[in-house]
Each structure stands twice: as C-alpha cells, then as structure tokens.
Amino acid sequence: MECMAGLWIAGGVLGAAGIMVAVILYLQNRRTYRVIDQMLDEVLNREEITQSDIREGRLSALAAKARRVQEMLELEVSHAEKEKEQVKSLISNMSHQLKTPLANLMMYEEILDTGDAGAKEQKRFLKKMRVQSEKIDWILQSLFKMMKLEQNVISFEAEACSVRETLLDALNTVYEKAEKKGIAVRMEPFEDQRLWHNRRWTAEVFANLLENAVKYTKPGGEIVISCREFEMYAQIRIRDNGIGIRREEMTEIFQRFYRGKDAENVEGSGIGLYLSKMILEKEKGYLNVESEYGKGSCFSVFLLREP
Predict the structure, then answer these.
(1) Spatial distance between the Cα atoms of 32 and 34, rounded to a whole number of angstroms
(2) What is the DSSP letter of 252?
(3) Distances (CA, A) of 179 to 44, 209, 220
(4) Helix-then-strand count for the chain, H and E
(5) Smallest Cα–Cα separation from 287: which of 279, 145, 246?
(6) What radius of gyration do the chain's Cα atoms show?
(7) CA 35 to CA 50: how far, in whole Å?
C-alpha cells in the first residue's frame, strides 16, 4: 500500500510539474507572440523597434533581423519616393519644353485653316510648322535617351575608332546652321587618333557642343576645334568667341534642364550638356569647360587613348 501511495504521489508531482511546464511554455509562447506582433506593427508603422538586442538570445536575434528588414523597406520607400519626384519633375519639364512649339504649331494650323493665306504664305507657314515639328521630335528623342541612360536601359559598346571621322559626323549636322549665321568653323591640323568611344553616341556629344557654340556666338564669330594628346587621354577642344558663361553658372550648366540667364531668349531645352556628360561617363571619358564671360567658352571632351 505504501508503495502504491508513493507511486500516486510521484505521479501527482510529475503531473503537476508537467502542467507547470506546459503553463510556462504557453506563457512564454504568448509573450514571444506578443513581442513578434509588436515588432511587426513597428515595422509596418515605420516606428523604431523597441525590443532590446541584449535580452534573450532568440528574441534579440529576431529583433536584429526585424531592424534589417525595416532598414531595407525604408531604403526601398526612399528610392520609390525619389523616383516619384523625378517622374513629376520630368513631366513638368517636358510640359514646359513642349508648350511653345505646340502652341506655335496650333497657331500656324489655324492661320492655314482660314484659307486666307496665299500660296507663298502657305509655303512659309508649312516650313515653320516643319521646323516646330522637328523641334518637338528632337526634344522627345533627347528626353527618351536621357531617361534610358539614367535607368541603364541603354547599353552601348565603345571601341577604339577614328576621332576625326566622329568629329566630321558631328560637323555635318551643324555646318549649315553655322554658315547661315556667318560663323566660321575651323579644325586645327592634328594627327588622327583611334580613341575609345562609340562613334554614333560621341558624335552626338560633339554635335551638342557645336550647336551650343553656334547658338551663343554672334554672326561673324569663329569656332575652333583642336586636339591634344596626354598619356591616358586625348583632349578634343571646341572653342568659340561667343557670349561665354557667368562664373556662378559654371557648376550648374551640366545639370538636367538648367538654362542660364543669357539663354532665356535662345532656343534650347537644357538637356544637351547633361546628356553629353552621361554619354561620356558611359565611355569612361569626361567633359569640362573653361569660360570667360563676354569673351567665349572652351568645352573639352576627354576620351581614352587606344591601349
């Protein structure tokens, strides 16, 4: 009997101990659940996680991971907000850039629609419409290129090729404009070099710089192209005797959509220099400028020499 009583007592103690263990585990699980639930709420509400990293190994490890998740989410949110602002800025600038040529097109269309214009006038307005259409197309193409370069959608291959041929490609696009304005474009003699660049894209860089030189140089002015060799790079200089750039604007002219005080009445979009800088960076080259206000500017393109 005593043996049986002992067994009953031992069984009771073990049962009580089991119940106590179960209760403790239940309470611990409830507490763990509450801590996890609190941390998730703090992550979702973008609040600081209050769980200490020092107490209780598993919970502290969980808190550390929750903080890492929170930091990653904050980073993604920050990137998304930045992209949203960039899109808003881009749409705003596109609207501003396209407003004038679109308004001109509508005005010319209304004049032609009245039927009052003679054959000579019709021809003149059709030519004006074509110019405005080309301007709209150029702005849109430049914007699309800029967006693709910014987002690394475009990948183009650079190779060692003739810099003289690339310069001639660019000159062909602006020569007529310079001639109409009475501006002399002169290329100083230099030995042709095979420099590291993409011919089509780099020709666009040179064309942008030459077009700017033509726009900001008075009739009868001069644009001079020259080339100098250095150990790693070759420097292609495009120098004009135009209006120059104000000292306070020198660091801003390469920003997207920036237009200087003296450019307000000159046709342009504020994209060319920004786009040129991005293209050259893709080729491991770079662009800089020297200028004296009222006397002219000199833009220098640096391209890697063939190894």
Answers:
(1) 5
(2) T
(3) 64, 16, 10
(4) 6, 7
(5) 279
(6) 34
(7) 10
**Residue 130 near residue 170, CB atoms below 8 Å:** no
* Residue that the structure tokens 């000579």 belong to: 120
Cβ atoms < 10 Å from Cβ of 1: 5
Judge if pTM exceeds 0.70.
no
Torsion, Cα 166 168 174 176, to 10 degrees, reads -160
User: DSSP 3-state assignment of 226?
Assistant: strand
Q: Give the separation between CA 166 and CA 299, rounded to whole angstroms.
A: 16
**H-helix or E-strand spanning residue 235:** strand 233-240
Structure tokens at 33: 């659940």
Judge whether 195 and 306 are in contact, CB under 8 Å.
yes
| 146 token code pair | 């800029």
- Rounded to an integer, what distance in angstroms lies between the CA atom of residue 70 and that of residue 304? 43
The residue with tokens 């405005």 is 132
**Is the CB of residue 282 less than 8 Å from the CB of residue 207?**
no
Please tell me the least confidently modeled range out of 10-24, 147-161, 286-300.
10-24
Main-chain phi, psi angles of 73, to 5 degrees: -65, -40
Name the band, by pLDDT with cuts 50, 70 and 90, for residue 157.
confident
